[in-house]
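Sample pair:
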Amino acid sequence: MKIEIKNPKYSNKEKTQVDVELNHQEFGWIPYTFHYETEDESFDGVIREYLKNENIEIEFYSK
């Protein structure tokens, strides 16, 4: 599965949720919020590993 992600930003001050935009083959860029602490094989875990492996910085939370 090829994943393209842009604009990762923490959506809470605890840094447990991250808003991203995912590039979907059919629908283009779509917003998605995932739980950063997920370490299993779920989609959230896949996104977290992608951000980690690609060394992508996550923007800090701001109100």
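Strands lie at 5-10, 17-24, 28-35.
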